């Protein structure tokens, strides 16, 4: 088997021309979330057997287009659930307790004298307020539910909104259902975990940000375009909300103007699943899915499993040579 790597430099994605050339050459495409894979690209090689995305999210791939062309698409779910939920909490705590600001303060040598009002933050547990804080979870899939479970240790009340998972929320025993606006109005912390779809694009925008409490903190580890980032910058500058912690950005790796200057924003470069063990497992899963695509077998993590019973798929695999 021959493997070609399209990315030449660590700080640059794969150029569209290199992608096209690569897709024309290969039997299976193993993509990263940074690579847009549209229908025209997939149609460039009638002998292509499948796409293995090395990520749980697959909004970079035109899955409907792939299905229409008879191409299975796979992702790497489950293995990154805990790692991503942990990072969500790391961000939430960092924003609430102002850890990055405190670290900068130390590293700049500004710590001369302890004072009772130094870098005051917000409690996550009831703390001095004695009030159970409310965590609002938007998107109650595997990761949203794992984030909600971790809130038990902080004595929080958890409310959740996900129009596709109302039954799971009701049955969870951890979270109670809330409509989006209600959730935004009641939550001390709002954490975003939906898939990026047309429905969730800019779900958090000027209107919805203005629903949040001025003391609330927004955490996003899902996909950048779920938040209207320019509106968020205004919200942070004008203190419609107290803070935000972001792992993902609307036009990643770029950031909306003014975001990096907001001292009430904690910003990290899309590292939610970045533990050594998890990334290792994701790579292995993507390779296993790729091999299944290659051998015309059902991929363990196909996101469009319905493709296997389609005429387009049957027509495609009938063109595979039996041995390569
Ligand atoms: C990371 O963002 C992923 O979707 O795996």
What order do the helices and strands come in, and which of them pair?
Elements: H1 16-25, E1 28-31, H2 39-43, E2 50-53, H3 63-68, E3 73-74, H4 81-96, H5 99-107, E4 134-138, H6 142-150, E5 157-161, H7 166-172, E6 175-177, H8 180-186, E7 189-192, H9 206-211, E8 217-220, H10 229-237, E9 243-246, E10 265-267, H11 276-294, H12 311-318
Helix pairs in contact: 4-6
β-strand amount: 5-15%
Largest sheet at a glance?
A: 7 strands, parallel
SS-derived structural category: alpha/beta
The secondary-structure element order is HEHEHEHHEHEHEHEHEHEEHH
Oligomer: single chain
Query: How many strands in all?
Result: 10
Major β-sheet strand ordering: 6-5-4-7-8-9-10
CATH fold label of the largest domain: Rossmann fold
State the CATH class of the largest domain. Alpha Beta
Bound molecules: glyoxylic acid
CATH superfamily of the largest domain: NAD(P)-binding Rossmann-like Domain
Radius of gyration: 22 Å
Fraction of helical residues: 25-40%
- Mean of residue pLDDT? 96
The CATH architecture of the largest domain is 3-Layer(aba) Sandwich
Count up the helices. Answer: 12
Count of the separate structural domains: 2
* Low-pLDDT windows of residues: none
Distance between the termini: 9 Å
Shape: elongated
